[in-house]
Amino acid sequence: MRWLRENWLDFLIFVLIAVVAVGVVLYLVGLNPFAARPAPPPAPQAPAATAPGPAGEAPAEEPVVTVLPLPEAPPAPSPGEASGRAPASAPSPSEPARPSAGAASPPASPGGVYRVAVGAFANPENAARLRQALADQGYPARLEPAGSLTRVVVGPYATEAEAMRVAEALRDYAPQVYRGEGPAPLSPERVYLQVGAFQKRENALALAEKLRGLGFSVVLSEDGLHRVRVGPVPVGQVDEVKARLKALGLEALEVR
């Protein structure tokens, strides 16, 4: 300790020289003991689940159809059964689930085959949804125009008894059996304007939804193709409606 008190200045100079030498060596080898260590990357976090919000669409003209569980399509009757007659009206439950409160009653025609109407809709998409559900269960379902509505029809059937059996199986839809080759024809004062025929139902529904959004009355019809029709249109307004459709790039074909 006596030596350190007598030679403290030399010792301090030695320490400074040693520190400088160590710093030079660290600099040459690329090490910096005073550099801040990089912080470890944060652990990935799972994205927070967000609750689905409202779709933001305008309310539809009618509620979306909730398709009821459907029974399997009944087998074809034997010749002995086909000759029998069914009751005049099919029984229905006290509170039947109707796909559309405004379903049109199809009129009977003097000749033809029997069909079963199970609903009529202002929104063609609801009619197409019900038709698809029936078709998935094996029913020969199709769409027909009925005024400004799109009607869902099952058939045709050769006898009234066979049609009544199907109506009984679909009694929750308040079915109506009628006789005829198709819907009643329009009056001479009204026509439909067909603006498209598609092999894919999705394409027909997309066009129908677009036209409905523009204020047109749209119905669907099926006969192997999905046909989109505007109407019924009074004869005096046909040219005006055709001009509006042509402005949208659609060629309209009159269908009576």
Throw out a few tags for this protein.
4-stranded antiparallel β-sheet; 8 strands; alpha+beta; single chain; Alpha-Beta Plaits
Gist of the model:
The protein is α+β, with helices and mostly antiparallel strands.
Describe this protein's structure.
- It contains 7 helices and 8 strands.
- By secondary structure, it is of the alpha+beta class.
- Among the domains are: 122-179, no CATH class; 190-255, Sporulation related repeat (Alpha-Beta Plaits).
- A 4-stranded antiparallel β-sheet has the order 2-3-1-4, covered by helices on one side. Strands 6-7-5-8 form a 4-stranded antiparallel β-sheet.
- The relative contact order is 0.13.
- Mean pLDDT is 74; it is low at 46-60 and 77-111.
Biggest sheet character: 4 strands, antiparallel
Distance between the termini: 122 Å
> Whole-number radius of gyration?
39 Å
Category from helices, strands and their pairing: alpha+beta
Number of helices: 7
Low-confidence segments: 46-60, 77-111
- Summarize model confidence as the mean pLDDT: 74
Tally of extended strands?
A: 8
Strand content: 15-25%
GO biological process, one term: cytokinetic process
InterPro entries: Cell_div_SPOR-domain, SPOR-like_dom, SPOR-like_sf
Pfam families: SPOR (PF05036)
GO molecular function, one term: peptidoglycan binding
